[in-house]
Amino acid sequence: MRTRPSYRDISLYSPPVVPCRVDLSDNTNLFGVPPAAERALREAAPSLVTRYPISYAPDLKQALSRYTGFEPSWLTTGCGSDDLIDCALRAFLEPGERIAVPDPSFSMMSYFARVNGLQFSPVPLRPDWDIDVEAMLATGARLLYVCSPNNPTSTVASRAALERLVDSAPGVVLLDEAYTEFSQGSNVDLVRSRPNVLVTRTLSKAFGLAGMRVGYAIGRPELVAEVEKARGPYKHNGIAERMAIAALTEDLPWVKAHVEEVRVLRRRLVEALEAMGLKPLPTEANFVFVPFPGAIQVAARMRDRDVNIRAFQGLTGVGEALRIGCGPWPLMEAALNALREAWR
Ligand code: PMP
């Protein structure tokens, strides 16, 4: 059977599934479902199942508009921000064009580049973990991606570097703010002051709705309209939409309280790791990143103790590292105990 030739060498991107009692591997919200969203799930009308959702999710855009302060025409939504990143790459680049991505950063970017037929330029982060603006521009890429706070390093791009990048970019800068709620501040205002910024965000992290697959993007209406062409009318299902709307309107105190709690928890986790002699990076996300040689083996031994955390090897400028998601303290304690035993 004839299929797309350039896909033949692409392997499926399939994150490992490791069933463990304590799972801190995917940076999701470990405090349960926000209450209004849960109510929306229980009360979902049958018509949400039997009928198509309204195309381009106008009700969800209204709720997002109230939450973000951007007009609905500046917003688009998708099946997680994954989906919007993929749509944006298709909307802004022709196959064969180039995308530049800091390294290390969100691991799915190289995959999205490949399935969209793009050239991919990883650009090492600077030793201070900031983006290397000149090196990114020197790739000649038409689209520049920046993730801040960055997954997996948990660090942020400096405002000065971001502004220089945006002002000198030959095309769109895609700013991934999946973890923005946990940081000291968003850079979404760049969308208003510059014509070439698209910000992607998600309800998978601070809002606790990862399984519902709801993400959104913010940009000038001209940019958003192009992304919607790549998106098509129907994406997330009607129940996910109702849950997202409930969370965005009624669960904001719940979200805020847990974001605050994560800030405290991550500080405690960092201190405990430092007391062990490890050197976690400064974190502005809901996870802690700890580079050290032997991390892969330590993570494997932690899994034997029913604790799953994400381990990396061969990361540019880092080598091996652990990434530990922050959740209720008993989970952190379980992870720390397993880590201490695994490290011996
Ligand atoms: N961007 C970053 C940096 C992420 O870490 C993730 C989730 N791992 C995503 C985007 C995608 O999240 P979602 O598709 O659930 O919105």
From TrEMBL:
SUPFAM superfamilies listed in its UniProt record: PLP-dependent transferases
Keyword Transferase: yes
EC number of the protein: 2.6.1.9
Entry keyword Amino-acid biosynthesis: yes
Superkingdom of origin: Bacteria
InterPro entries membership: Aminotrans_II_pyridoxalP_BS, Aminotransferase_I/II_large, HistidinolP_aminotransfase, PyrdxlP-dep_Trfase, PyrdxlP-dep_Trfase_major, PyrdxlP-dep_Trfase_small
Keyword line: Amino-acid biosynthesis, Aminotransferase, Histidine biosynthesis, Pyridoxal phosphate, Transferase
Pathway assigned in UniProt: Amino-acid biosynthesis; L-histidine biosynthesis; L-histidine from 5-phospho-alpha-D-ribose 1-diphosphate: step 7/9
Catalytic activity: L-histidinol phosphate + 2-oxoglutarate = 3-(imidazol-4-yl)-2-oxopropyl phosphate + L-glutamate
Domain Aminotransferase class I/classII large, chain residue ranges per copy: 22-338
PROSITE patterns: AA_TRANSFER_CLASS_2
Pfam families: Aminotran_1_2
Essential cofactor(s): pyridoxal 5'-phosphate
Annotated PANTHER family: HISTIDINOL-PHOSPHATE AMINOTRANSFERASE, HISTIDINOL-PHOSPHATE AMINOTRANSFERASE 2
Similarity-based family: Belongs to the class-II pyridoxal-phosphate-dependent aminotransferase family. Histidinol-phosphate aminotransferase subfamily.
Protein name (record): histidinol-phosphate transaminase
Organism: Stigmatella ashevillensis
Biological classification of the source: Bacteria, Pseudomonadati, Myxococcota, Myxococcia, Myxococcales
